[in-house]
Amino acid sequence: MSVSAGLTLVLSAVVSPLYLGVIQRTKSFFAGRAGPPIAQTYFDLFKLLRKGAVYSGTTTWVFRLGPIAGPAAGLAALSLLPQGPAAAPWSFPGDFLVLIYLLAAARFFTLISALDTGSSFEGMGASREAAFSALAEPVLLLSIAAAARSTGQTSLSGIFAGAGAALSRGAAPVFLLLAVALVIVLLAENSRIPVDDPSTHLELTMIHEVMVLDHSGPDLALILWGGSLKLWILGALIVGLLLPIRTGHPWIDWLVFAGGMFVLALVIGVIESSIARLRMNRVPQFLVGGGAFAVVALALAMR
Amino acid sequence: MLVLSGLAAWGVPRRAAAWVGVTGAIVGSLVGLIPAIHVLADGTTVAAQAPWNLPLASFAIAIDPLSAFFLLPVFSLSALTAVYGFGYLKHHRGRGRAGTPWLWSNLLTASMAAVLVARNGILFLVAWEVMTVASYFLVTFEHERKQAREAGRIYLVAAHIGTAFLLVFFLKLAGPADTLDFNRFLQGGPGGIAGTLFFLMLVGFGVKAGFVPLHVWLPEAHPAAPPHVSALLSGAMLKMGIYGILRFLPYLGAPPSLWGWTLLGVGLGSALTGVLYSLAQRDLKRVLAYSSVENVGIIAVSLGLGLLGLTYDSPPIVVLGFGAALLHVLNHAAFKGLLFLGAGAAVQSAHTGDLEYLGGLLKRLPSTGWAFLLGAVAIAGLPPLNGFVSEFLLYLGAFRAVANLTPPAALAGACTIGGLGLVGGLAAATFARGFGIAFLGEPRTQAAHRAHDVAPSLRLPMLVLATACFVLAFASLWIVPALRPVLAVATGIPSAILAAEVASVGTTLISLTEVTAGFLLLLLALAGLRKLLLVRRAVATSITWDCGYAAASPRGGYTASSFAQPALQLFAPMLGTRVTNLDPLGPFPTEASLATATPDSFRERVFGPLGRELARQLARFRHIQEGRVQIYVLYIAVTLVALLLYEFARVR
Amino acid sequence: MVTALEILIVFLVFSNLRLLGLSRLNASIRTVAAQGVVLGIIALLANAHHITWRILTIACAGIVLKGVVFPVLLYRALRAAKVRREVEPYLGYLPSVLAGVGAFLISLWVAARLPLPEATVSTLMVPAALSTMFVGLLLTVTRKKALSQALGYLVFENGIYAFGVGVALEAPVLVEMGILLDVFVAVFVMGIAVFHISREFDSIDTTKLATLKE
User: Fold this and answer.
1) Which member of B325, B336, B607, C189 has the lowest number of beta carbons within 10 Å of its beta carbon?
2) Between A170, A288, A293, which is nearest C94 by CB?
3) Do A289 and C17 touch (CB under 8 A)?
4) What is the pLDDT of residue B184?
5) In degrees rounded to 5, what are phi and psi of residue B18?
6) Does residue B347 sit within a domain?
7) Is the ipTM of this complex over 0.90?
8) What pLDDT score does B188 carry?
9) Are both B380 and B499 inside the same structural domain?
10) Is residue B401 part of a domain?
């Protein structure tokens, strides 16, 4: 594990809460408000870390397992992700599978910690989360399969490295479709509009927010951090596929990567501000639409 | 060693027989494991032969790496379930002798071992039949219950249909030879009938393995049997079907792509059907039974991919496909065994298996809950446990196919990826539901509230299996290279050629294990960090906040059917769920209810009507059964005369 | 150039999928209009190196007709019938979208096996055309509102036109103009028919028309 790889890991873990701030700021701009400062998430984290906790008598150690699974999986997944010019600390064929399933494990532990409270609100959120993520996972896997087919590689580093060559060979439509599918998955997995509304907490309509209703104090801070890590990971995946620019100068590559992430945050903010939240029974159609993008991308790549 | 197990099997139907039965099972299993491990380590084959005066038969047995590999789960599970059964059956002062279940379970183990080492068609079929009969008696152990009798009947019919197919298969495979010894089977492929043989084999072994649509006996039989038997059935007996397919594939010659696609299709169909029905069940044991159908489907998908690798001559895909299948056999034995044992403990403590009547069991059965959680995480295919490793290998094979092979093979990979992704997500949902509703939250009935933990003899096997899940996950990087001799036998490719591929898979697994270990360390680190943070702060206990609803009752917790509803709604046409409801009427409704039931579509729409029609047609022949002895004597006389006349005509 | 064409063809395919999942009728009309415009642009781009006045006029006429005139006619019918949404079709939205994706994949396979002349536009054009035709058929068969069936017919026409572009059929001016006129008249008549149906039956739900058989 090289120094730059390790440093990238630590840096991205620290910088990821900023991402939420940028998205929030964009949404406020569209709503005509000034909005909270970009570093607001950090303030929230520090506030929560200083507090005590209240645990429900119904819960067991499973409830305490959920909040730590999120950041643990996120950090482990970050170690598999090449960002910008930095290589990933671990890279091997099929590493993206480990990444996806680490995030899935975190989701599983969150699900059962929600069921641990014995409350029907959390149960409702958990059941929707389970159903929608069962649809989102194949979309994510098929998108990466399309990228793997165009580049002929089976590891993330390989795919990112080969993306530039593939694009110049005329695989642009494939990557465009891929990007749309991946953005749809990102919106679904990170509880963004149109799948879920992260800013209100109406239990009967929400998915992610309602699952973590009973957590408090440091637990909630860990959950918040885990969520921002997950957002960063999926965002870095999209930017890595779409901007495979390798000029050879690390500083320029870093700038390109950071710029790409920033633009992606803006795009997410714009999407969130322009569409309304979907009715709950339309969310599967949304995800299947994303799947259609991925399948067509794969079909095009296989021609 | 087989004979020892056999002797122990006549585990004496007497009083105080439980001790004899258990000791026999454990000793026999351990003794049986020794040669198995020996053969696996060496890669050699141990053989023996003796004549037998049935036609076409000889007592030919041998242990080669493939048999040895499958002997591992058989013997380990039988030893562990024997320990469990000892504690479980203590509560069953039922009718009949105390030693009967031991007789049948030891006989089951012995027959499974016999199937694995048999090298003659007749011996194989005899052992297969004994296996079926022994498990039938175990399934109908609680024969007072109508459901158990019904389950046994369906199981018997299904199993014998499968055996019939196998008989035809063996006869055709032997061709003109005068014996059904395996090594006298048509070498180099039987020419034109390879396709028929493949079909016969698929159906015959598929019934036992539980491929859809031949699975209808599984969800009846496995829940009806006592939990330690269900663990053995799911963990070991289903794999006999897989073993059969692996054993006889090389005899059929080079596989055309149709076979790989068939297995792939059957596997994906089984996996999806299995997981959907699993999500829809109310009974915890039925959830597990359908989940076995799903996992057998995954194994079939791996085999299909491996076969396609053979067709398209791609060693990496072959290694990954067959390797994933073999590893999943082992993994499934571990975590399904664990889950059935845990479920059995929970059901025994709470006196019901219905998920809607359970709840909060984790606090009352802590070690069982722990074990069940580990089993659930493993079966959902999540890191850091072993289910993930075998699914990872399968995915890697599929992605390799997509990335590097020509479109037909790449298409197979793509279908695998999409299907497996969906199945994996639904499996995670199923087991979050299974574990969450049964073990978490508040108990929904008084019985669940009063549940208490089970005896140590039940907990010990669960502990061993849970540890096995961890060990299998982290030791995978040694296990997979050790599978090389098994792969050589199964695929027909010489071991030396496989070496490079297996080595590269091993290297990948090393990195995988490192990352998984890192994940576990991070979990511990963060837990420690949180503890540190909370040391000086106020930590209080209260009721569930529930967004301020202070009068929550246990019955207000989310129900199992509600949990499954969003996912099942998407697949409604496939499932045919029946909803009966009584809507609340008026401003002060007194009665309202909602009930959902998801019967097995295959049983309802295919086999049920088929069986009934068959019964109706056959009933016409019932008048042959006159009941009077004179008529029967007349029948015999008529038949003899007819045979005599036929012989005369032939000789003429 | 090929890449831009391929992106447009992909847009065509996705406009079909969108139609299958949409229940709002005015959005459907807009989607079909966009489809027509994109097809016109594809026709122009395909012949970019040898543009003649003939090709230019026909393409522009197509764009104007499909992008402006037809939507106007259909909107009028929509307003007269006072409907906004499709009712639950015979084949649900989710299965329809899945069927559309499946149709595209099958079209890819079929097109590879058809004995067609060398593809001048892109190898994607014929599969996209075949799947568009299928989607038009699906819309006509599974939707209940008469307007949706009109839209299905238009999509089917688009598919046939796309197929022509894909195999670079050069038809005489008269034939191409004749086809366009045909379609125009059909839509005009359908608009009138919808208006009259809604006036007679107070709805344009075709399930109610089934009572005519008695």
Assistant:
1) C189
2) A288
3) yes
4) 59
5) -55, -45
6) yes
7) yes
8) 44
9) yes
10) yes
